[in-house]
Amino acid sequence: MCGIVGYIGEQNGIPIAIEGLKRLEYRGYDSAGLCYFKNKKLHISKKKGKVADLEELINKKDSSSIVMGHTRWATHGKPIDKNAHPHFSMNKKLAIVHNGIIENYDSLKEGLIQKGYKFRSDTDTEVLINLIEYIHSDLKLSLSETIQQTLTQVVGAFSILVMSNEDPETIIIAKNGSPLVIGVGKEEYYIASDPSPFLKYTKKAIYLDDGEIAEISRNKLSILTIDQKIKSPVIKQLTMELEEIEKGGYETFMLKEIYEQPKSIVDTLRGRILQETQTIKLRGFNESIENFKNSKRIIIVGCGTSWLAGLVAEYIIEGLAKLPVEVEYASEFRYRDPVIYKNDIVIAFSQSGETADTLSALKLAKEKGALVYGICNVVGSSISRLVNVGTFTHAGPEIGVASTKAFTAQVSVSILIALALAKIKNNISKNDFNQITNELKSIHQKMQFTLSKCRDNIKEIAKKYKNAKNALYLGRGVSFPVALEGALKLKEISYIHAEGYPAAEMKHGPIALIDENMPTIIIATNRRNYEKIFANAQEIKARNGKLIAIVSEGDNQISKIADDFIEVPKTNYYLSPLINIIPLQLFSYHIAKMRGCNVDQPRNLAKSVTVE
Ligand code: M6R
Description:
Layout: E1 3-8, H1 13-23, E2 31-38, E3 41-48, H2 51-57, E4 66-72, E5 87-88, E6 94-102, H3 105-114, H4 124-139, H5 143-151, E7 156-164, E8 167-176, E9 181-184, E10 189-192, E11 204-207, E12 212-217, E13 220-225, E14 230-231, E15 236-237, H6 253-259, H7 261-269, E16 273-274, E17 279-280, H8 283-287, H9 289-294, E18 298-302, H10 304-321, E19 325-329, H11 330-335, E20 345-350, H12 356-367, E21 371-376, H13 382-386, E22 389-392, H14 405-424, H15 430-465, E23 470-475, H16 479-494, E24 497-502, E25 519-524, H17 530-542, E26 546-552, H18 558-561, E27 564-568, H19 576-594
Parallel strand pairs: 18-19, 18-20, 20-21, 21-22, 23-24, 23-25, 25-26, 26-27
Antiparallel strand pairs: 1-4, 1-10, 2-3, 2-4, 5-6, 6-7, 7-8, 8-12, 9-10, 9-11, 11-15, 12-13, 13-14, 16-17
The site of 5-amino-5-deoxy-1-O-phosphono-D-mannitol has 16 residues, from α10.
């Protein structure tokens, strides 16, 4: 969580940093701040609220060729002005911006208080900068050596930028567990949590690894490890385009990303289905084919929507490839001492590739000898660099906090893995393989059709239910995790309480909630459990519940008893999540907009959850 930026070069870095922070606001938007040189001294401007509020605060005449900035998702300390970053050290010799958590900040703070240190904020970050200041004055080391020494005492995940009053030409940065990337310009450097803030200026990037510290001045960059080894920087050429991270005429990123799904599926599937040879071309899978052949089970880990894509994958992989799959919340998996066998394959689903719990779950699985496989959307992300092998979803940057196109891209990769696995395990007929891959190759057309067809219908339905206090989402089989994802979308962007349930489970509790005020959204597109879900729909109507049904075109049973229904094109059972999630995303979107919510930046959330 939190976004950090830095600039050092010839230009005025203040507008560059402000613009960069706006691009990073998806990482947190509780407060924002800048540090730069003013009258030859470190100057900090910071404020609770969005980057736009900070912008108002900054004197337009200020100019500095060395700047660092921060947009916060609060961990330690409330989101108020004094806890906003950057933070000065007690004697204002140094300033810091920090993304992450210093776990042992309490004991470090205690030690500093005994040495006479006083604190202005409630943050762990201020402890770190005071510790750096103390060690700096005590040991008389250079600032980068001091930071190196200090970090050996620190437990936690962080990426930091530090500026000093004594050296207006240098920024020192360090990374351990939270992302940090350096953009390389001509006699200038950009620093950020991801490349979006500097994409406009340079596509040359250096990804810092964990345990690395870089000393950056206008025309010099040196990288050291915490254990004092010199590292030569590896410059990568970014392939991302600026248009990909802009709204492109849509009113929000979320809406743009919902509408981008057909394209993102085409991009994700491109070149990966070879029908002539009946093969699936996934480099990560093929490089670990022996592991897949010998494996007795797959464990999928993830958080939030990525965990839900993992649940969809469980239905698809078990259904097609007949290999047992377990799906776990990464946060539970890592702390419950799980039994992991050497021939297990642990697959992490993560859009950002930075989610702290997922990253730690993978580290644990790797330590225990399992093959770790990543399904990520961000090239160069921590998870993509940690895994043994993996497959990228090519959904393009997802900026809206609510995950949409990443989910469908993850599901499409799951289908590919299931097909590849079914092939090597001889569990799929030629006919079924062809039928599913044919459908998959054209699924983007049905997604496009769904998007166009549902547009007005869903808005009308959303109008009717926008004041609901609660909502229930039901599905069976592979539609059950889709129902969960629909419920998650509604609660995170519209703040309406919503629950997802397997439709049959309703009778075991949630049915008690049904009355004339309670909308239930039921996914009823699949023939294989249609009669059962029809019975569930009737149970809701018998109790005067409001029923919104997602049905296949031409449906004439459930649509007749539903208060509202949305027709979607028919498709293969395993591919149906790619279609069925679309009306649910749009439903939440329109309800949230009608309730006046900020759908791209819902309250309390951040896009990339890099703390536990
Ligand atoms: O980047 P990741 O896919 O690892 O993120 C996981 C979750 O934090 C994320 O899916 C979150 O639940 C979204 N806000 C859901 O829309």
